[in-house]
């Protein structure tokens, strides 16, 4: 999520530009608008998620894990939709005047969890890039002194941080198998999906799934349910000093704590950004976000910027405003961060 930040003047301008557009809430529909959630899903077990109680009890491993090649997935028949938005940032503008078409595919109901990634590592002995690099970009709530001392004070390069040790040495993921795995790079994600015979989604496939057959204006609104409660895990309060946790979580939440979208997919908005397989292109306007690469060791070589989608627990209405299906951001392919995970897809045979 954190990519560009040019100071208080840019932040103030972005807030003025977008706050009104994204202040209105929305209620997630219970069913898809266009029937893309199709008959291939009949009689398949769906994840028992969608509430705090259910996500807390979830092991992080879907039903029939490793026995069913499509375990934890739902099928979408594909179709045409508008890729992007006219209401957001400049790099979200739809290309041309028509629609983008995607073919059918299976997609994970949730982000890949710590439990799933741990099974992959145990099976293959895979070592992530953060482990090889000796650290990763980790978010923390900065003190006043830190904010006064440097820009991007909420990001730090933490030696020893990895998916196993998300806050660095002394931290671990024991008993947290239901969390999205984070601090993984795009290469790590690709290694996992290939182990399962799957792939990462393209940006278009991801956004098609995230919009779930909708094209209404509320797609560009702050995600709130019919009662006005936040319907996703994003930042409420003044960023980066106070997350009031109105949504029930300050920091990363277990997968599936909030209602699914119309395609039965959880956490397409908020919680953790998600890798895609697409290289980032488009206007490189200031994003009012902190570039995680800025805190990495100066000897580190910069890698290709890739598209990430969906926003994270760090997106706020006064700073990021990327808790929307059409939002997009860039992240260097080999840089792990504490707010980025992924989910997998399996395309239909053409």
Automatic annotation (TrEMBL):
Residues 1-23 form the signal peptide. Keywords: Signal. Residues 71-345 form the Sulfatase-modifying factor enzyme-like domain. GO terms for molecular function: formylglycine-generating oxidase activity. The keyword Glycoprotein does not apply. InterPro entries: CTDL_fold, Sulfatase_Mod_Factor_Kinase, SUMF_dom, SUMF_sf. This is Formylglycine-generating enzyme family protein. It comes from Paraburkholderia silviterrae.
């Amino acid at each position: 999520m954190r990519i560009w930040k040019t100071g208080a003047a840019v932040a103030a301008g972005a807030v003025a530009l977008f706050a009104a557009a994204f202040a209105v809430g929305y209620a997630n529909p219970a069913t898809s608008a266009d029937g893309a959630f199709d008959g291939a899903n009949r009689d398949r077990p769906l994840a028992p998620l969608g509430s705090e109680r259910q996500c807390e009890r979830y092991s992080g491993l879907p039903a029939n894990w490793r026995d069913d090649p499509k375990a934890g997935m739902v099928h979408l028949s594909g179709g045409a939709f508008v890729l992007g938005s006219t209401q957001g940032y400049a790099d979200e503008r739809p290309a041309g005047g028509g629609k983008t078409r995607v073919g059918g595919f299976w997609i994970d109901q949730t982000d890949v969890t710590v439990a799933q990634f741990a099974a992959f590592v145990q099976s293959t002995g895979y070592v992530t890039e953060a482990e090889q690099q000796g650290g990763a970009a980790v978010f923390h709530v900065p003190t006043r002194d830190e904010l006064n001392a440097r820009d991007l004070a909420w990001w730090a390069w933490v030696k020893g941080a990895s998916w196993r040790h998300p806050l660095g040495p002394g931290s671990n993921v024991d008993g947290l198998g239901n969390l999205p795995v984070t601090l993984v790079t795009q290469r790590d994600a690709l290694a996992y999906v290939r182990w399962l015979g799957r792939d990462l989604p393209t940006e278009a496939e991801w956004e098609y799934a995230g919009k779930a057959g909708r094209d209404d204006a509320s797609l560009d609104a702050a995600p709130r349910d019919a009662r006005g409660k936040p319907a996703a895990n994003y930042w409420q309060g003044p960023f980066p000093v106070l997350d009031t946790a109105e949504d029930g979580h300050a920091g990363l939440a277990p997968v599936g704590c909030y209602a699914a979208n119309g395609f039965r997919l959880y956490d397409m908005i908020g919680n953790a950004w998600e890798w895609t397989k697409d290289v980032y292109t488009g206007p490189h306007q200031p994003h009012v976000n902190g570039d995680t690469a800025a805190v990495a060791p100066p000897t580190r070589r910069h890698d290709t910027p890739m598209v990430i989608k969906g926003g994270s627990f760090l997106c706020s209405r006064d700073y990021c405003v990327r808790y929307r299906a059409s939002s997009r951001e860039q992240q260097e392919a080999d840089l792990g961060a504490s707010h980025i995970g992924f989910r997998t897809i399996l395309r239909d045979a053409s």
